[in-house]
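re: that chain from earlier
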Amino acid sequence: MYTVLIAIAVIACAISLYMSVSIMRKQRKQRYDHISPTVAKHPLIANPIVILYLAFPILVVIGGLIWWYLEVKGLT
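^ sequence. v structure.
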């Protein structure tokens, strides 16, 4: 059961990341009035949504490990 849920979550994150990056690439061609120099140099790394897509799976794994540790110790 958990394997199926994890697989669905990974697929959803991958599709969302792909769609976000494709939209960002389309918007790169547009002209903006003001854009931060950091975003101009690194449009993917400076995007908070992309950072969230990369951080979310890591935080889920860390949370799962903490939950598993607490279950093993009998603290929950």
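The chain has one domain: 1-73.
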